[in-house]
């Protein structure tokens, strides 16, 4: 009985962890749009958030894992650097995409992560496609449908179906031009791609180097370098780097502590416990959270195009998910049969 309770708790914690991670991500998108509308430079926010996250993670990285921390080899540091490049690229693309479009579009596009994760897993031979199996057909079809849904969200806004009645009309989002909307969607797609790369590579690194906070500390520390160089080139006005006791500082604190450090800790831990596709399955919840937050706090109208495209993406997403878990069920059944009856033929063709 105790074992059953522990097993149930072990399954519940990753679920709750990803739920909180999605809430913080949706809140982050709304906060970013609020800050940009308020005149805060997006690249400065990225740099300060990375620096503060690194500083906050430093004691946890070197004291929490002191007894079990693997040696910091040159190979490990190079791996952390590559992860940092994925993180910094995703962050910059996300900020630019949200500025040019909206948090709702960015949240919808992030549901491409499972599709990109599947494609990248195929490229790196972490996944196999067997065309006669229903599971493989579902994953391929779901990936195609998700990408098609992303184009619907980007290319078709449609009339508003959920209008904001915010009392603070000055907080209303200004309508983006169609060209900005499309460019913002492309940047959000790039964010999803780099996030998928992070999921794939993070899963590989976590097996070799299980000290989660150490990995994250070096990710944020190393990510500060390319983000800082990019910001120094892009931001011409030195006064934009000055921190004041205003909304900008609050946004940076939220981004560093909640949206960056807490979210990446939860995602990294969940990837280590349940794998990259488990984490990716929670992405559709981000649409719901973001729509509600954007409507309440930013006065954003939810358009028909976003609804149709989001539904298409989510349908494709769950097709990929069904195919993946169908394969896992078959693999477990085959393993059980092999362990109990070594001479029983494999049931591969029923996947």
Automatic annotation (TrEMBL):
Transmembrane segments: 12-36, 42-62, 74-98, 104-126, 138-156, 181-201, 213-235, 247-266, 278-298, 304-323
Family per record: Belongs to the drug/metabolite transporter (DMT) superfamily. Plant drug/metabolite exporter (P-DME) (TC 2.A.7.4) family.
Pfam family, one: EamA
Domain EamA: 16-154, 184-321
Phylogenetic classification of the source organism: Eukaryota, Viridiplantae, Streptophyta, Embryophyta, Tracheophyta
Membrane topology note: Multi-pass membrane protein
Location(s) in or outside the cell: Membrane
Keywords: Membrane, Transmembrane, Transmembrane helix
Name this polypeptide is given: WAT1-related protein
Protein species of origin: Phaseolus coccineus (Scarlet runner bean)
Signal sequence coordinates: none
An example Gene Ontology CC term for this record: membrane
